[in-house]
Write a structure and sequence with these properties.
The structure holds two protein chains of two kinds.
Chain A (H helix, E strand, L loop, with lengths): L9 H20 L4 H20 L3 H8 L7 H8 L2 E4 L12 E8 L2 E8 L5 H6 L7 H16 L4 E7 L6 H5 L2 H13 L5 E10 H5 L6 E5 L3 E3 L3 H9 L5 H8 L3 H6 L5 E3 L10 H20 L3 H13 L6
Parallel strand pairs in A: 3-4, 4-5, 5-6, 5-7, 6-8
Antiparallel strand pairs in A: 1-2, 2-3
Helix pairs in contact in A: 1-2, 3-11, 6-8, 10-11
Chain B lengths: L1 H7 L20 E3 L6 E3 H6 L15 H8 L6 E2 L15 H12 L5 E8 L2 E8 L10 H17 L3 E7 L8 H20 L4 E9 L1 H4 L8 E4 L10 H8 L10 H6 L5 E2 L2 H14 L6 H4 L3
Parallel strand pairs in B: 5-6, 6-7, 7-8, 8-9
Antiparallel strand pairs in B: 1-2, 3-4, 4-5
Helix pairs in contact in B: 5-6
């Protein structure tokens, strides 16, 4: 990838550049190129459809990792009217790889949580590349319990390759924390909306991913582990990640078929990064619609249905 | 005779035999990987697969766990016929399943059933590392969940011996990940009824199994030196690009960091489980009478 352009998009991007040039020419020199522009435009459109309608699972994984893909805080900024960030797990420290707080969605208070990737190298280092430590998950759980206390719905925006694999993370019980989150989230008496916005990797995603509705962006991926790790474990070769992505059935389309997710949120053609605002608005509409459905249900019924949903997964006999 | 053996053969090949009875050499001898002592295999098996020189705990198959911990002939296996397929169509998975079935004599990586331990009726489960590394796919998830549901319905305690190298089973992708949710929920519903769950973590208990039902027990015991953790040591090493401290993710590390209640040697395990069951017994048909 060069300057945020993928190899497979190059012909399209070059065409788009040419169109832009002609437009500038028309404006600057007053020569009418509108016919040429129209021809090129239609060619670009068909190229766009052609390229983006047959993306491989691995290409989707790369789109999900695009450096300009919206982060959790981007969505919070674009979707919610107001946001007050809450920090810390009350045990060790505040984990910058996980953010959370209270936000207003069309006037109604909700609790939003989600892993936060960095915007650039410096930010990424500060945020540990969006890989949370146990305290990050503990913070998320604290905020979710708080949401339950005040009857606020929970919105979990998930974009995480996995929980951080480090010495301190293991010392502080990464596995135990994930299990604890899964257990407690399953029984929370408020509506929980989860959205896989980019990457959904392993227990690190599931630890904030138990909900009443699981939505997934068109080019997001969600699986038992990242394609690289799968390739490493099964074939001892991370270069086979593309092959692993194929085998893991990790795309939104696969997951909808398996009833793991409820809805695919369409992305702007080429990926969410190509039109951030439209992306955020599409997601906002879906959040409001699902929230409205969930809020009419009594809490006990909500939890019973949630448990039933997971109980049915993998029953194939 | 021993001298001849030492001189001629440096290594002994260890191949799992039928019915997964642990480290059995093709020959009569097994070499301890910890202290390099050459052990008479029959003696080793009699010693619960523990080296009598350095007390290294070899891995143990699921059926051997049943034989070791439960009262003889008390075990009634549940859901033996539960067999999964290859839901994702993952290449090579069927072959792996078939091979594991052959070498372990199990239908899946998890063995569950009802039995008695020192007279206490309970639901017992054991994960067998010999079956695709003791990983959790849909069948293991389902069997573990059903075990807890059965225990809940009959108001029985659960003892679960876990071992799982990779945790979740890669070949079943997202379906495998979701078993973490399913099993954790089954554990919690059992727990909410005031019933006891004791987990025994054995070498290795990692990833998805550790990050779900294995660490949600009321009492967590671990065998000495068992590898316990979320991310595999190789992944951690590659991520942080430095050598891992010795003893990293071993049972003693987990104990020091507050992640397990106690480390129990295998030969003491049955006694300790009996004590714990006794502490939670209120006499007679206790579990039926206790209420919540």
């Amino acid at each position: 990838m060069l300057n945020g352009v993928f190899e497979w998009e190059k012909p399209l991007v070059e065409l788009e550049k040419k169109i832009e040039e002609l437009r500038r020419f028309t404006k600057g020199k007053g020569i009418d190129f509108s016919a040429e522009i129209a021809t090129l435009e239609s060619r670009a459109e068909s190229l766009r459809q052609d390229i983006y309608s047959r993306l491989t699972p691995w290409q989707k994984v790369m789109i999900a990792r695009h450096p300009r893909r919206l982060t959790c805080l981007d969505y919070i900024d674009l979707i919610f009217d107001d946001f007050f960030e809450l920090h810390g797990d009350r045990t060790i420290r505040d984990d910058p790889a996980m953010v959370g707080g209270i936000a207003l969605l069309e006037g109604r208070p909700v609790t939003v949580i989600g892993p936060q990737k960095g915007k650039d190298t410096k930010d990424n280092i500060a945020r540990n590349f969006g890989l949370p430590h146990p305290e990050g998950y503990r913070k998320a759980l604290r905020l979710m319990r708080q949401a339950e206390k005040f009857h606020r719905p929970i919105i979990s925006l998930i974009d995480v390759v996995g929980a951080y694999p480090g010495i301190e993370a293991e010392q502080r019980g990464q596995g135990v924390v994930i299990a604890e989150n899964i257990r407690q989230m399953s029984f929370l008496k408020v509506p929980i909306l989860c959205v896989i916005t980019g990457e959904g990797g392993s227990g690190g995603a599931l630890a904030i991913g138990i909900g009443d509705r699981i939505l997934m962006l068109e080019n997001a991926w969600y699986s038992v582990c990242s394609p690289e790790m799968c390739a490493q474990i099964l074939w001892k070769d991370t270069k086979k990640a593309a092959e692993a992505a194929e085998s893991l059935c990790l795309t939104a389309q696969d997951l909808l078929e398996w009833n793991i997710i409820d809805e695919i949120i369409p992305e702007p053609l080429g990926g969410a990064h190509r039109d951030q605002k439209t992306m955020a608005m599409t997601l906002k509409e879906a959040l409001l619609r699902h929230l409205q459905e969930l809020e009419t249900q009594p809490a006990d019924e909500l939890v019973a249905k949630r448990l039933d949903r997971y109980r049915q997964i993998g029953v194939v006999w | 005779m021993l001298k001849v053996f030492w001189g001629k053969q440096k290594y002994v090949t260890i191949r799992p035999r039928e019915a997964s009875s642990g480290p059995v050499a093709d020959g009569l001898w097994t070499r301890c990987p910890a202290c390099s002592s050459l052990l008479y295999t029959k003696e080793l098996t009699k010693n619960l697969n523990v080296c009598d020189r350095c007390s290294h705990h070899f891995r143990m198959g699921a059926w051997d766990r049943v034989r070791h911990l439960l009262d003889s002939d008390s075990f009634q296996e549940m859901d033996r016929d539960l067999k999964g397929g290859n839901p994702l169509g993952f290449s090579g998975y069927e072959g792996k399943l078939a091979k594991s079935r052959e070498t372990t004599g199990l239908t899946e990586a998890c063995l569950t059933g009802e039995g008695r331990l020192s007279g206490y009726q309970l639901v017992f489960g054991a994960i067998d590392f010999g079956f695709i590394g003791g990983t959790m796919g849909t069948v293991v998830g389902e069997k573990v969940s059903r075990a807890f549901e059965c225990a809940l319905a009959k108001r029985l305690p659960v003892v679960m011996v876990s071992a799982g190298g990779g945790g979740a089973r890669m070949h079943e992708g997202i379906l495998s990940l979701m078993q973490m949710a399913k099993t954790s929920q089954a554990v919690e519903r059992h727990s909410q009824a005031g019933l006891l769950y004791i987990a025994v973590l054995t070498d290795p208990t990692m990833g998805g199994i550790y990050a779900s039902f294995a660490s949600l027990a009321d009492v967590i015991l671990a065998e000495p030196q068992a590898l316990i953790g979320f991310a595999g040591p190789r992944v951690v090493e590659e991520t942080i690009r430095q050598k891992l401290p010795s003893g990293f993710q071993r049972a003693e590390f987990a104990l020091n960091n507050g992640m397990v209640d106690a480390i129990i040697e295998r030969k003491e395990l049955r006694k300790v489980l009996t004590r714990l069951l006794l502490y939670h017994d209120r006499g007679g048909d206790s579990y039926a009478e206790r209420g919540v």
